[in-house]
Structures are given as C-alpha cells and as structure tokens.
Amino acid sequence: MSLDSHDADAPAHVDLDVTSTQSWQALAAHQPHVYAMHLREVFAVDPARGRELLVDVGDLHIDYSKHRVLRETLELLFSLAREVGVEDKRDAMFAGVHINTSEDRAVLHTALRLPADAELVVDGQDVVAAVHAVLRAMGQFTDRLRSGEWTGFTGKAITDVVNIGIGGSDLGPDMVYRALRHYADGPRCHFVSNVDPADIVATLAGLDAETTLFIIASKTFTTLETLTNAAAARTWLWDELDATGNADAVAKHFVAVSTNAEKVSEFGIDTANMFGFWDWVGGRYSVDSAIGLSVMAAVGKEGFAEFLDGFHIVDEHFRTEPLETNAPVILALIGLWYNNFWDVGSRAVLPYSNDMMRFAAYLQQLTMESNGKSVGMYGHHEITDTGEVFWGEPGTNGQHAFYQLLHQGTRMIPSDFIGFARPTDDLPVTADGQGSMHDLLMSNYFAQSKVLAFGKTADEIAAEGVDPHVVAHKVMPGNRPSTSILAPKLTPSVIGQLIALYEHQVFVAGAVWGINPFDQWGVELGKTQAKELLGVITEESAPGPQGDSSTDELVRWYRGERGR
Ligand code: F6P
C-alpha cells in the first residue's frame, strides 16, 4: 500500500502543517521563558534533573538534563509529536507501508536486523527469510575468505579487501570498520570512494594484486564514481597479474554488493558472487545490509550478528517505548526544539573515541541527505525549517580546534558527547601517574559538557586575581546545551545501537516536519550536469553556452590550464 494523502486508509495528519498545531503555538509562546533562564538557574530550580532526565537503552546511558528544556518544554514536545502522529508514522514504517512516497517504496532498514524467527511479509515478500538468506551467503563467503579457502588467481589467500563504493556504500562500512578495529581479525580492509584518482592510486600503492579482493558496493550499480574506480581497479589487477582481459582473474578478485544483477553481470562479475539487497533499504541506511560485507570480512559473521543485535535493541525500544521514555524521540524533539524555536540549525557530534573518527562524516549523510528537504511529503511547500546540520570531530582533537567557538562564540551549538567507560586501548599516564590515558580522555569528556553548561562568571574570574582588563575575555558564558551518551565499551553491538539511535532521530524529526527522509532528488541535477560538462571541458572546441558567464569563464580558464 502506498501512503497517499488521498488513500482512504491514510491517516488524517499526513498533510498537516505542523506550524499550525496547538502544540507548536504553545512551544512558540513558551520559548521566551526558557530562553531567559540560564542552565545554572534551570538546575537550581530543578536539582533532581541530572538524576532524572536520563534514559537507558541497551548499553547506552543517555543524559539529556543539560539541555535548555524544562519539564514543561518536554511535555509540549511530546504533545507535538502526538499531534502530528509520530507513533502512527513509526508503526507504518515498521509495517512496510510505502512511506517513501516519491519513490513509492517501503522503508525497512529495521527488517535487516530482525531475528531469523521474526515474521514480516511486505508486498508479498517474506522479508525476514530474504534477509537471512543473504546473511547466510555473506557468512559462507567471509568464512572462506577469512580461513584462506578463497584464493586469488594465482592461488594465494586474500590478505586485503578494498571496498569500492560511495555515500552509503562507503561511509557506513568505513566508519564501522575503523570503530571495530579491536574486533577485526580477518583481512585488512581499505575503502575507496572518491572519483579523484588520488584515492584509488594511494590505496593500491601498498597492495599486492595476488592477495587483494575488491568488493564493488553500489545499490544501483550505475554510480559514476564507483564504476570508474571499479574499472580502474580491474585494469590494475590485470596489469599486475599480467592477465589482461582474463575473466577468471576478475571472478577470483571481484565480488559485488548491489540490487542490480544485470549491471553487475555487465561489468564481468559472476552474479554467484553478488550479495543482494532491496529497494526498501536506502543507501544511507544500508551498512547493516550486504553493504556491510567488508565489516563482516573483518570481524566475522558472529561479530556482524552482534552488530545487528545492537540495532535491533534500539529498534525495539523505539517501536515500543512511550514517547516520554523513548530515547530517539526525546533527542530528536530536543534537536527540533532548537532548530525551529531557537533558530539554531547545527549540532556538533563529539565522540571521545579516536576509533569513531568517521562517525560525524557518517552522520552527515544519514541526517542531511535524509532531512535536507524543502517540500513536504506530498509536494507542498508550506513547511517549516528542516535539516539540522551535523558535524564534528573526536575529542580531544576538537577541543584544540573549534571548541573555542562552542564555548565563547555568539552562536549556540548543541553538542552530543559520546564516551566509553572501558577503553579499547589504554596506557598509563607517566607524567603524574594519576589514572590512565583513557581516564585522562574521559576527564575531558566530563569537563567539556560541564563547562559548556555552567561556564564561569566574571566575579569568579575576578576573585582569582585576574587582571581586570582580561576578565571579560575569560568569562565562560555557559548555558550551552549538550547530550551525554555513555556506554560501557565500544563493541559491535554498541556501534549498532548508536547508529540506530541516530537513524530513528532522523525519522522522528522528518515525521514532525512532514517531509520524506528517504529520497534524495537533490543530488541528481549535479550528476547530469557533470556528465554534460565533461564533454565541454575536454573537447577542443570552445565551450558551448552554459547559460551563465561564470561557468563559461571558469571552464575556459580550466581548459587553458589543464595542459593536454
Ligand atoms: O548520490 C547520492 C547517492 O545516491 C546516495 O544516496 C547513495 O548512498 C550513493 O549515492 C551511492 O549510491 P549507490 O550505492 O547506488 O552507488
């Protein structure tokens, strides 16, 4: 069934203008009251909030007390979510309703992590059986790879896997592989995405073709960057093995992950070595599908199963928990509160874990390709501001880069701090012997959110005897909100839990805004224009009119300088 505003079954709220709801109006009226309060005052009048504005889901311990929300604010936000039908929309997603209206597709990444004994039939397909059949095939293949049974063209075992993909076919596996460094006991993995040849050239430079396997990961198998890099990899392999045109060499060194068997076959990859998924898995929601094949190769099928279990824990929480205690709902609504009522459009994501160095990059696609929309689900333009900007870097590196602006800048940027009780690596601190390097890292984690929230006043600074003309420069205004997310350890399950926590926040925000987070039409025009311009920048004849003098002039300059 497709969810159409004209369907008899469609809920009444599908076309609702969220800004006209009672809760929205009430939140707008309430905002100046909260705006006028400093977090110091908020904690003074509600001292229990640090012990109560918490939610535990799976291994995640989430504190949202350092936000500029009162308990009344939260109630209004939950009313808003109810008024726009977030619960019905959530249920529709889990049930396989075609909530991706512009592409008439179900949105079922949650089915990728259902246990084998679950039941879900959508559009006549036994989804759970299909998912587990692919997982089994992935398991058999990665077992052979990891044990050395799968050999390359010259009979040697595979030591290195290169995943060639971009966007959702790269960011997820790359981020998770790095995050699970400590669990990786299979072949080394590398990730090539950019059509800039520097990417593949630098990656292949250290590799031996006899022991390298390529995973060509592309949902559509039409993506320019991926197909170009795949062809370059094939040429490199043939050259290195002195086997140009040899189909057996390709069969032994290339596998594919895709929904498009025809194109995979056209490239020369045996579809027996293709791992499939379905149009109801969006690219940016696909790391837990066969797109995660490189991760499974690295950590094994058991580790991958733990990763999927992590997602499922948060899925079940999101699906069943009342809004008031539902972590993705709470965090999404707080993000929306700032986005729409405070004119604050960005959120910093700050993992205190070097192994999570690609997490912010991963979230950028997940959140911004999903909710960067300016028309409503049914094509109407009367929508409010959407699409929080997500960005960040691991702590403590970020502290020495952009935290100055977080602490004393004129913009308020809410932050998500992510940290772990037990380290993946640790070393003693030799300078004063107090604690370990991990404790040092985590003392910074706790200090930063504390200082952001509570700051330091001019009086406190002056009392320390600071030169009066410097006092103003040293004032730490505080009143800057953050979420603190803690987990015992960065494990396969925990990284799955964290991803699902953000996936569902994206869903809730999109549901309140009344947009479709599951299409991405905005990336298409650039692709077609690049194809047209390729001819213009490489042909000797003068560039044809491009319709604007700026592009024409830039192209003319480039052609003069490109030197061929
Ligand atoms: O251009 C955007 C996009 O379509 C993303 O949504 C997707 O993750 C990426 O390109 C890669 O697409 P594919 O997996 O089909 O190669």
UniProtKB/TrEMBL annotation:
Pathway: Carbohydrate degradation; glycolysis; D-glyceraldehyde 3-phosphate and glycerone phosphate from D-glucose: step 2/4; Carbohydrate biosynthesis; gluconeogenesis. It is an enzyme of class 5 (isomerase). It is found in: Cytoplasm. Keywords: Cytoplasm, Gluconeogenesis, Glycolysis, Isomerase. It comes from the Bacteria. GO terms for molecular function: carbohydrate derivative binding; glucose-6-phosphate isomerase activity; monosaccharide binding. Its EC number is 5.3.1.9. CDD domains: SIS_PGI_1 (cd05015), SIS_PGI_2 (cd05016). Residues 553-564 have a biased composition (Basic and acidic residues). GO terms for cellular component: cytosol. It catalyses: alpha-D-glucose 6-phosphate = beta-D-fructose 6-phosphate. One of its GO terms (biological process) is gluconeogenesis. InterPro entries: G6P_Isomerase, G6P_Isomerase_C, Phosphoglucose_isomerase_CS, SIS_dom_sf, SIS_PGI_1, SIS_PGI_2. SUPFAM superfamilies: SIS domain. Pfam families: PGI (PF00342). The active site is at E369 (proton donor), H400, K527. Gene3D superfamilies: 1.10.1390.10, Glucose-6-phosphate isomerase like protein, domain 1. Residues 539-564 are annotated as: Disordered. Belongs to the GPI family. Catalyzes the reversible isomerization of glucose-6-phosphate to fructose-6-phosphate. This is Glucose-6-phosphate isomerase. It comes from Gordonia asplenii.
